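Task 17 of the worksheet. Students: predict the tertiary structure of the chain below and write it out as structure tokens. Keep your answer in the requested format; marks are given for formatting as well as content.
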Amino acid sequence: MNVDPLLAEVLQLAASWVNVGLYTLEVVLVVGYFRKRPTRPFYRAAVSAMLLFDTVCTLDVCVHVCFRIMGLSEDAQLVPNAISVFMTYATATAEEIVMCYVFYTLTHNLFLLLVLGTLIVGHLSLALVSGSLMLVRSSMALRVASASSVTCASTDLAIAGCLAFKVWKLMGSAHLLDSRFSLARRFFLLVISSGLLVATNTLLMTGLLLTRNPAFSFFYSCQGRVYALTLLGNFLVGIPFRASSPGSAAQELDLSRSMGLRIASGILGTHDRRHTTGGNHTSGATGMGEVNSGSLYYSRWVKEQCKEADMPSRPRVMSVP
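Model answer:
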């Protein structure tokens, strides 16, 4: 498909603006995440790595736009293109690894974990090869990039499908969501928690690449930030969990609301509710500063903590994993 140079430059310029906006939001959420003092080194390392990759990629996108506006040759744009490929798929890999770990924590399904891990290794390998081929202007670069994009989309869809199935079962059991949660709210929470949003974006991007649509560059430039925001959204947004414990029949653990995603939590209605336990009346409407955030995915971990600890009669707030 013949692409109008002016249209390509406009799309690239718009992508740089969107990138800076998404990156700024990512930095704000990362600061909010670390202010909660997360305890798990694995998650801290993943968030730090994604921030590093996205910092490099955002700067690279801005430099690439400058090169295009200045009218530099395509040879001068090879390095920015390759760096964008490397950093985008590095961010994607970090997000997918964490999602796979969460899925395994919930299900302990080793077979599916190995399948998803194989897909991750496959698309990362193809991405490294395609980026390297771009540097030497190989005619195979576009074909390998297409294969890498298709494999990445398949991986995202597989992970999102597995997590969506498990999350939907969690939402439908153990009174995790009460009757006031409409189907739209459940779907909204499902999209955030299972990675359906980033999977949809990856699928759209792959379709644009295969059809040689000029809009591909716009979506591709923002893809890394979408991965990072998906993971941060899972860490910073949660829902109330009810878990049985020796000390009480039903303890409500509010894992919702924090920082920039407070609006999303408000849409979901994730707030403390008044309830009676053994004659003790406990009231909610907890302020944002009083609540530590968590993730929907850690329900199994929360239940294990409840079993090991003697829960008091008043709700106990769990910290960010």
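Marker's comment: Confidence is low (pLDDT under 50) at residues 238-320. Strands lie at 241-245, 248-253, 275-277, 280-282.
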